[in-house]
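Sample entry (153 residues):
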Amino acid sequence: MKRMAFLVGLVVLVFAVAIQAQTGAKPKAQTAEQELLKLEQEWTNADVKDDLALLDRVLADDWVITETDGSVWTKAQILAAKKTGEDKISTEVTDDIKVRVYGNAAVVTGRNTLKGIFKGRDLSGQERWTDTWIMKAGRWQCVATHISKIAGK
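Predicted structure, serialized as tokens:
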């Protein structure tokens, strides 16, 4: 009788561990997705508010952005342009965001509708973007951004 109780207890324990392992992986991925969605929205807000501290935190030191005209800018260049007012976004709405997480890396795509200027160039309109994120020192940081203008928008 004791053997039967032990075996039943062991089987229940094995199933409990297996179920926890299966369900434990999904919330972690959902958490990363939710965290990246939040970071993207904070980044959008920081662009409008010129929140350099937030931008400095979410952008990796080696982050680069490829703009719609093909020019490539570094984090240091973008932050400097924000400080001088050469990069000024007056409104920005981000939507159609999709997040794909691959372990410690993620690709996030979306669409912006914005009004602003960058180094004298009008940025107003709609654009599609792709951000590449990595988990670095326990937090997500963006390492690369690519922007494409949506024609006629």
